[in-house]
Design a protein that fits this description.
This protein has helices at residues 3-33, 38-49, 55-69, 71-95, 104-162, 167-173, 183-188. It is mainly alpha-helical and 189 residues long. The longest helix is centred in the C-terminal third of the chain and has 59 residues, at 104-162. The radius of gyration is 29 Å and the shape is flat.
Length: 189
Amino acid sequence: MEPRTAASAAFGLALGYVFVGLALQHGAYILQYGSVFASLRRWLEHTACAPGAARPLRWVCRWGRELVSCQLCSITQLALWFCALPATAFGLALGGSRPFGLAPALAAWGYALLFLGVLFSTAAVGLICWDVARLVGRGSDAAVLYLRARKDAAEVEARGREGAGDPARRARRGPGPRAVDRSWYANSR
C-alpha cells in the first residue's frame, strides 16, 4: 500500500469515527432529553415504581430507566446495536468463519476482539463528542459574559476619563471608590 493511500484511508477512518461519534452523542441526547421518548421514559419510571407490577417487569423497567438516563450507558448501547454488531456481522460475512485460514477458535477470538474494539472505540468517540459539545456550550456562554464584562469596563473607563479633568465634576462625583479591607473575608474561610 502506498503512503498516500494509507494516509487517505487513515483520514477517512478518523473522519468516519467523528461522524459516528457525533451521531451517537446526538442519539443518546435524544434518548435522554428528547420529547420523542418522553412517554417511554415516563412509562419506565411509572412501571419501575409500581407496586402492583410483577417483580421481573419492575426489574426490567428499572434497568431500562437507568440505561436511558445514563450518558455512558446510552451511548454504549447505541454503539453496540448500531456499530459493533453491524461491523462484526459485515466482517463475518466478508471473512467467513475462518478468515485468513485461521483455526475456528482463533477466528472466534478475532471476531470477538473486532466486536469489542468497535464497541468501545465508537462509544469513546461518542463520549468525547458529548463532552466537547458540553464544553462548547459552556464556553460560548463564558465568552459572551467575558465580552459583555469587557464592554462594561470600557464604558466605565470612558466615563471616568471624560470627567477626570474637570474639578467641579470630580467634586460632584464624590471621592470615588475607596479601598475596602477584606482581610476578614480571607480569614473567615
